[in-house]
């Protein structure tokens, strides 16, 4: 939301993307009234239609909605779609992570990073992750095999010093850092055919340096001989079904940082802006829902 220009935001009737609720008008789809579902509004759709999730009623194409697994509450399910799909599509649709391979998750305590750890472990991969020391227990509880405290020293220096063998097949930056150091030094810890994947650099100083060192600098001028890609989550119905299946099987679990009443939505944004949330920040529109 913070990265979207004001003229786009002004077009929205309501904001936000993830939701869980009850179908009140199936409109001729495979659903029926009373079905308990969860889903999401892709950003492109939200911009075009003005429809968002932070409302008492919302409309969405049936392809972006799925029945809610019975082993999770509406509150838990409402924080699933975008972060789980970002992790899933990045690891499997783009990076093609396989069982037995290794992956590094930068930002293991972030919402996307938390799901990336769980999904990679469910696949049978070896997982290393970074976070601050206070979140080590949380990150390990999700399945991380190795942990790096990024507050001890620059993370790229720790990874270079680790002299890893074998090197990681996938490096997934779920923080969206602008500093290109992790990518520039990645040949020391990312396999030659590996992939450096990112949710994309966030706004801030250093974008020019990032663009040159990551996107533009050729290898004959000292550029890095590794692939870098940015994940842009897409509305793939099969991926949403797979996420729901993994939740139903107990292989991944929703992660809720905090819950706010509808009238306290601004406090939810304040929590997000602290950059200290572990898991999703949820706004509960209906106070009677679990």
UniProtKB/TrEMBL annotation:
GO terms for cellular component: mitochondrion. Residues 2-283 form the Enoyl reductase (ER) domain. One of its GO terms (molecular function) is oxidoreductase activity. This is Zinc-type alcohol dehydrogenase-like protein C16A3.02c. It comes from Trametes pubescens (White-rot fungus).
């Amino acid at each position: 939301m913070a990265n979207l220009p004001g003229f786009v935001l002004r077009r929205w009737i309501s904001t936000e993307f993830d939701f869980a609720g009850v179908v009140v008008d199936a409109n001729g789809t495979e659903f029926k009234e009373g079905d308990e579902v969860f889903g999401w509004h892709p950003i492109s759709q939200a911009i075009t239609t003005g429809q968002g999730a932070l409302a008492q009623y919302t409309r969405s194409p049936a392809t972006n909605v799925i029945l809610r697994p019975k082993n999770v509450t509406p509150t838990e399910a409402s924080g699933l779609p975008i972060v789980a799909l970002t992790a899933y599509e990045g690891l499997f649709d783009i990076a093609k992570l396989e069982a037995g391979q290794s992956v590094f998750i930068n930002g293991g305590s972030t919402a996307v990073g938390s799901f990336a750890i769980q999904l990679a472990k469910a696949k049978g991969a070896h997982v290393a992750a970074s976070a601050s020391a206070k979140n080590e227990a949380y990150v390990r509880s999700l399945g991380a095999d190795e942990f790096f405290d990024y507050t001890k020293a620059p993370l790229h220096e720790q990874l270079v010093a680790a002299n890893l063998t074998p090197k990681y097949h996938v490096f997934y930056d779920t923080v969206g850092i602008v500093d290109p150091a992790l990518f520039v030094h990645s040949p020391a810890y990312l396999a030659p055919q590996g992939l450096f994947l990112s949710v994309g650099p966030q706004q801030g100083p250093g974008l020019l340096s990032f663009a040159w060192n990551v996107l533009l600098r050729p290898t004959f001028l000292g550029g890095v001989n590794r692939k870098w890609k940015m994940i842009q989550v897409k509305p793939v119905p099969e991926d949403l079904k797979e996420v729901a299946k993994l939740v139903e099987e107990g292989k991944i679990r929703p992660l809720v940082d905090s819950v706010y009443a509808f009238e306290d939505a601004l406090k939810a944004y304040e929590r997000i802006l602290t950059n200290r949330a572990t898991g999703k920040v949820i706004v509960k529109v209906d106070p009677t829902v679990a």
